[in-house]
């Protein structure tokens, strides 16, 4: 198997894990590895450590860049937040951007983060302000200042 083909397969496995929200350990499940071996005996899937330390960070960097580029080309963005609690009673806050591109609604999750404080309006505003994708990154790519209303 060529290096290019192996990297393509790694990208597809990463997409499977990310897009379907599987745990990183899924790549080490015997049935998953057996399925991939059946499809291509020459392919060795990545380990959980490879997913954690290489593939997911690379995926994140590319996706973040793509989102910044896309958002830099829109005039208006609406942000929504959703506070929720996991089965384990952990509290999370998800921030999502909603916008139009060529008349079609798009939305991108900007961040999901564990929240250890009461989810008051002030805490939510602080979490949004501390988002991984900042308005400075988006505006800076267009050379404009984003206003607040």
UniProtKB/TrEMBL annotation:
GO terms for cellular component: nucleus. Its main location: nucleus. One of its GO terms (molecular function) is zinc ion binding. It comes from the Eukaryota. It is found in: Nucleus. Keywords: Metal-binding, Nucleus, Zinc, Zinc-finger. This is DUF659 domain-containing protein.
